Amino acid sequence: MEGSESSITSGYQWKEPSFTSTKGMDKALRMLRDSFMGRIPEESRTTVVSLAWQELWSKAAKYLNKDELKLLGEAFVYAANKHKDQKRVTGEPYVVHLLSVAGILADIDIDIETLVAALLHDVLEDTDTAFEEIKEKFGTNVAILVDGVTKLGNIDFKTVEDYQAENLRKMFLVMAKDIRVVLIKLADRLHNMRTIQVLRRDKQLRIAKETLEIYAPLAHRLGIYHMKRELEDLAFKVLEPDMYYEIRRRVRKKLPEREAIIKEAIDILSKKLDEAGIKASITGRAKHFYSIYEKMKRKNLTIEQMYDLLALRVITNSVVECYQVLGIVHTIWKPIPGQFDDYIANPKSNMYQSLHTTVVGPSGEPLEVQIRTWDMHWVAEYGIAAHWRYKEGQTKPDDLDAKLTWVRQVLETQLETSEPTEFLENLKADVLSTEVFVFTPKGDVISLPKGATPLDFAYSIHTEIGNKCVGAMVNGRIVPLSYELQNGDIVRILTSPQGHPSRDWLSIVSTGRAKSKIRAYFRAMEQTEKKERLEKGRDILLTELVKHEEYKDVDVESLSTALNKVARDFGLSNKDDLFVAIGEGTISPSAAVAKFIEAERTRAKGALKPAVQVKIKETDSEIMVEGSGGVMVSLAHCCCPVPGDQIVGYVTTTRGITVHRADCPNLLRASKDRRVSVSWGLKTRAFYVTRLRLEAIDRAGLFADVTQAINAAEGNILSISAHVVDKNRARMNMEIQVKDVEQLYKIMARINSVEGVLMVLRG
């Protein structure tokens, strides 16, 4: 691939043991390979299929035994027959894609079950194949893998964000069961990116953006760097073609000069290592194009100012030799202060281990040197996939389950998150982001996303430590809770039994885990407070009710129907809401009892008149008014009720009946004698006008993000005004059109998920 490692190496080269090689494959294996080609449909026996099959076979034959190769062949024949009438947009038989996906996974010595599942990954979705059929022919594990990949397939969503979020939810659910499902998905995405040029430009842009924002970071999080690099470069080529080709041109122009410097550095280091008796592989390492572009943007550099394009990778046989090589490197060339990282002693959360140092090289320019063992190198390139390289009887890596703790943390967070966009936001913050490494006072390493604060650290340790946090010490000194943690910080959390979260913390923390725990705390508090107010209100109402002789011995619960009617009269949903309102003091118990007694006496007399339907004056909707007919009815402008709201009518002197939301402040201040019961009738109008107001931390792009959130929920903006208060606080007022209260709440939820938004309320 363009931008990959230089071919310049020292004389010390390590070679993996192999079952056989393409050239040395014996006649029996060649005949076995070709026999499967003869069993596929005649229309699929094209040159491109034959070449793809030969390439996959040659890769797999390096590490699979004969029985496993036979199973691979049977899967190839099965897939080719199932997809015989299908072609890709490129015009190639569809089986070429399946062979290519399996070939990408064979590059990392993946197990036979995963290779078979890769060949079959589309049969459930695109053919009439049943799960049980795959299970019977290839085993339960293969069937589960294929089913897992199928469940990650496209489904219809109103917005791209919802689609991405739901697919990611699914991905993490299947990851928790078997990580190999995601390896197949990444390989599938990589091959699709390699052939993306045949798609329409709009599809190219959407897929490339999704690849850059989600799939490449996910490959990074799983430690599969060779996939990450290629996914980034392919997406970069689509999204920024001019910049991509400009960087490629300039890198190639400087290539001879760089190769001469790298060769000189390799010669010098090889000689010193030879003298020390250390055998190692030394290669020149080139940055991929997207990483160059990112650094140019981050540091505002031109390609000519990029000096760290010069890099060496040294691979040794032991950890002890890694540190010996580091000492030799620092003896030959002067190290640059602050440019050393020990990821052997402190591995990254994706299992990556290596020593990184930058020195002043032989040309006088910075030279980056990476030093690792062969096992570390395999894990560095193939990450979680390296787990399947370790066969029975060989040294095994650390338990796979321990390495996937972060997957379970993601799932835990998503269970506490109701909105898809909130889940996507949390995922990008926690998983698909750059890491920093900090220490507990005991020396344990904690990995957090860049921008994390002591509060994020506290919640990463334990929910209760986060909830009881009252302060933090970093490197022995008190810091604000908003302090941004840096690599190597030693963090100590100060707690108190009286400590509790503040809503301001939501604007301080950056991890999804911390945000979800804080929100969960306040939801629990609200539920507890509501329960207390409910019980208090029930007791107050009962006390007031027994003052009347006929209800002296009555049980409140036996009056549920009547109390529900009273609640509706006040614009509430049910008697529980009535109890809560009484408990918090917004409704007088005497008023509630008076309405109850009045309703009971009226019912007893049979004096209730049937409801009539009256056409609303200012809209095309209809309102049901109890006991009235031929009355002018209109929606109140002060609270702008919409279908689904709890509503109450108010009899005016000149305008008939105005319909208010039950919680409208104007209604609560008005005379209760003029209130009448109303309800929503037949809805005949498409949209209703309502108002929202919000406050947020002012930042560039806030206005655009808010309007985008409204549009994503299919809201129509009629007017919007914004101004800044208190230096960094923004305030917005807007009028929007919605279909009903359900859509309104969706819009409010989306606005709440916008970065920096502190609150959003109905106007």
Q: Which structural class fits the helix and strand makeup?
A: alpha+beta
What is the helix content? 40-55%
CATH class of the largest domain, named: Mainly Alpha
Mean pLDDT: 78
How many helical stretches? Answer: 28
Query: CATH homologous superfamily of the largest domain?
Result: Hypothetical protein af1432
Instruction: Give me the count of strands.
Output: 21
- Name the quaternary structure: single chain
> What's the arrangement of strands in the largest beta sheet?
1-2-5-4-3
Largest sheet: 5 strands, mixed
Radius of gyration: 33 Å
Amino- and carboxy-terminal Cα gap = 57 Å
Tell the overall outline. globular
Residue windows where pLDDT falls under 50 for at least 5 positions: 1-24, 154-160, 390-404, 410-418, 427-433, 607-621
Describe the structure in your own words.
The structure is a single chain. With 763 residues, this protein is of the alpha+beta class. A five-stranded mixed sheet has the order 1-2-5-4-3. A four-stranded mixed sheet has the order 13-15-14-16, with no helix packed on it. Helix 2 packs parallel to helix 4 (95-106), helix 4 (95-106) packs antiparallel against helix 5 and helix 22 packs across helix 25.
Features:
Hypothetical protein af1432; five-stranded mixed β-sheet; 28 helices; Ubiquitin-like (UB roll); four-stranded mixed β-sheet; 15% strand; 763 residues; alpha+beta; 47% helix; 6 domains; 21 strands; disordered N terminus; single chain; Beta Polymerase, domain 2
